[in-house]
Write a structure and sequence with these properties.
Oligomer: homodimer
Number of domains of chain A: 2
CATH architecture of the largest domain in chain A: Alpha-Beta Barrel
CATH superfamily of the largest domain in chain A: Metal-dependent hydrolases
Number of strands of chain A: 18
Structural class of chain A: alpha/beta
Strand content of chain A: 15-25%
CATH topology of the largest domain in chain A: TIM Barrel
Largest interface: A-B, 68 and 68 residues
């Protein structure tokens, strides 16, 4: 199967150019100046006029099952929000299947071709949960990395001075979790079919050193992405000081957990030294600007990260903390938000830069830079064709600025993943999207007034984080 | 003409309730508990199941002609961005007509029923420009306040140490401008038909005291909204110190320009004393979060404003500094952005609060609180019906959180302005929207690479604002 996309605008080396692109099988075969490739009878020919072709974005961090908690959780900081999320998390395997399908659809229709699902898995049904997720992603045909959330420390350990709290049930041991992860890798890691398993320790605040290091050993053995939450909140920053006496980044580095296969989500509270360590390790920071604002986590130092050579990509984060799952929205906010941190406009991110971060940067963050994220011969045909005639892309000014700084809606016309046409004429081709919407609409949620849930840990949180001594960065 | 909307969710006193709403003529006649109003044969009956009914939002600050500059201007701070905007501003009256039409359509389809157009007007064709805008807004049928931008100081006066710059052409005198404004009021102020003229001195940085005070006199005489830019940037904050030795807010207050009819756009750099003065005057601050980030202007102290009793509403600002004109996007960002400024989540804005700001708060900001912005008997029937069955409003959790914190798309089903159905089944009924898109698509813009425009004032700006001594708030 060959497809020739003729004379389409794309971003090449930071500038817009019209090119011909030939797809052959699952790969990009040729990229050539516009109107220079011959047309053959057996090819599908696509007229690229008034179209923009970009590598698919990577949603570098989300939690697919939170689709069911979209719009549900009140206005709370991470630590208290999490208590609400736990209480309302789905418990049925079919909800996980549909959560993956919904996440895949939202990703595709906002320009993505790959998703990192830092996946909640049902305790005691971990294999079954991963099976449901794999089934969902394969049904849609998106490229997916599934990193099950694992932790061996109790919920209370995620709070500064958490030793003062009831410790609750102990999770499974590091040894048991690592054994389970080895089984999951053996059973589900399937690069040939676009499904990858990652190791996803929840974060240093919920994981022992044994688990953190054991995950690294698994990552090394199977060449897997290592994905973890890192310093999302001020509370976690304080916790690291309590737990280690050194920064959490230095601690992870000492454990050997920072490599080019590592991606850390958030990093809102990393400092200059942390940035240096992460950059030198060749790791990736996944920036989740919408979620960081929704949870009041703060402003990640994204401009400084990039200035120091640290790879930065974008994530939506789960639907319980970003009640939309739209990559273009996350990219827009990530482009303009950080201007508040630096008056010198020469340092501000441009749409060209943030598109690069969302594509090539994102691919590197999920350990797939040799496969996806770049429009070049030999790379996987993971591509998105945008319709520049759509009203939200008018008037015809700068297409990249309209895509990133506007509010593009229904502009994704065609999406290829591994050379297969997954979206055409704006419609997902592989599954019945109406069935998905029917399932979501059937949910009996809290359609009414939402009361802030007061959790037993709240007085402790207020005492330690709100009324306690202030702490600067 | 009567319309009965039966059993529809709405926000009453901060909580969701199902009600019946009867519209009669141009007004809301009755609001009653669900299924209590009798159905009459001559009524249009609307089933409110799975629907949310809110008063229309007010877009409290925009510049309609910038529709033509959407996606055009590179990444620059206000003062340098402005130089680019001037150079690319439209010059044809028909562009102003279509700019008003486009702004009205974008407003309606994102939940608005009223727009404050702080309108650029073609020098020497001011009356004709306002005529074109009025024609555009009347064609669509939206409620509009048109406040022509006027200034009597040259462009250079908007820069700190602007006396060092070439002064350029002098604008018209205060006397001439005030005479022109009096003519515009006489000719176009037409409350009975939903068209209002406001007085809109550009800002203290481009206006003499004579002009600022003369505008107030006009406002007093005709009971007009007084609308002006205020302390949008750090440069303006510095300029106020240079020009007055006191804060710009205190200066406007001393001139008598702060009343309950006053709305000021931005206020990013107001301090505690300024907030107090504005609150005591009963003025309104129009918050434009997207534009403030796009131009790197900073974070307006919105939480403090509200804590001090200052009315805050929302604006999109013009399409050259917010390349979308979507009120729901501005409200979402305004809801979550300010959490970075205050760790105490008890102070964070809720969707219920920001919807109130966008409706009743917005109406107060355009001096129309007695007419619109509230769902109550006797108020104008300026209402928006949202479809909660749309995929972007699923699953069925909290509809207000989904509307404000999600990314609702195509959810506006019906819009009434002054009792007239302007949007039905998601389609604007009054004009041919395809004709608008055709006109916008015909524009020959810079569809290609965008180079940062280096303006002659740039070295001065860098010297004074970037390399000069730092200045805290």
């Amino acid at each position: 199967m060959q497809t020739l996309i003729q004379s389409v605008l794309t971003l090449q080396n930071g500038t817009l150019e019209a090119v011909d692109v030939l797809l052959m099988g699952d790969r990009i075969h040729t990229v050539a100046p516009a109107h220079t490739l011959p047309v053959a009878a057996h090819q599908r020919l696509i007229d690229g006029s008034d179209r923009l072709l970009l590598p698919g974005f990577v949603n570098g961090h989300t939690h697919s099952s939170q689709v069911w908690q979209r719009g549900l959780i009140p206005q709370l900081p991470l630590e208290l929000w999490l208590a609400n999320v736990f209480e309302s998390t789905p418990r049925q395997l079919e909800q996980f299947y549909w959560g993956a399908v919904s996440t895949a659809v939202d990703t595709l229709l906002s320009g993505g071709t790959c998703v990192m699902d830092h996946a909640y898995v049902i305790p005691g049904q971990e294999m079954e949960t991963v099976e449901a997720l794999v089934r969902g992603y394969k049904a849609v045909g998106i490229r997916a990395v599934i990193a099950p959330l694992i932790q061996d420390l109790p919920f209370a350990s995620g709070f500064p001075q958490g030793c003062l709290l009831p410790q609750g049930a102990s999770p499974r041991s590091a040894v048991a979790l690592l054994g389970m992860m080895a089984d999951i890798v053996t059973t589900f890691h399937d690069p040939a079919n676009g499904i990858y398993i990652g190791v996803g320790p929840t974060g240093f605040h919920r994981c022992s050193d044994q688990l953190l290091a054991g995950c690294q050993e698994l990552s090394d053995r199977h060449h897997l992405c290592y994905h973890t939450h890192l310093l999302e909140t001020r509370a976690q920053h304080r916790l690291a000081q309590e737990s280690y006496g050194i920064s959490a980044v230095q601690h992870l580095h000492n454990l050997g957990c920072l490599t080019p296969r590592t991606s850390v989500a958030h990093g809102v509270w990393i400092d200059e030294g942390d940035i240096q360590i992460l950059a030198e390790a060749g790791a990736t920071l996944v920036h989740n600007p919408v979620s960081n604002l929704r949870l009041g986590s703060g402003l990640a130092p994204i401009l400084r990260c990039r200035q120091r050579g640290l790879n930065v990509s974008f994530g939506c984060d789960g639907a319980a903390s970003n009640d939309a799952q739209n990559l273009l929205e996350a990219i827009k906010l990530g482009t303009i938000l950080h201007r508040v941190a630096d008056d010198d406009y020469d340092h501000w991110l441009t749409p060209e830069q943030t598109l690069q971060m969302a594509t090539a940067g994102g691919a590197r963050g999920v350990n797939l830079a040799d496969r996806t994220g770049t429009l070049a011969p030999g790379m996987a045909a993971d591509l998105v064709l945008y319709n520049l005639n759509h009203p939200s892309m008018l008037p015809r000014n700068h297409p990249l600025q309209l895509l990133v700084l506007g509010r593009p809606t229904d502009v994704v016309e065609t999406v290829w993943v591994n050379g297969k046409t997954i979206v055409d004429q704006g419609q997902v081709q592989t599954i019945d999207v109406n069935a998905l919407h029917h399932i979501l609409a059937r949910s009996v949620g809290a359609q009414g007034n939402q009361q802030t849930q007061h959790h037993p840990v709240e007085p402790h949180y207020r005492q330690v984080m709100i009324h306690g001594p202030g702490e600067g960065r």
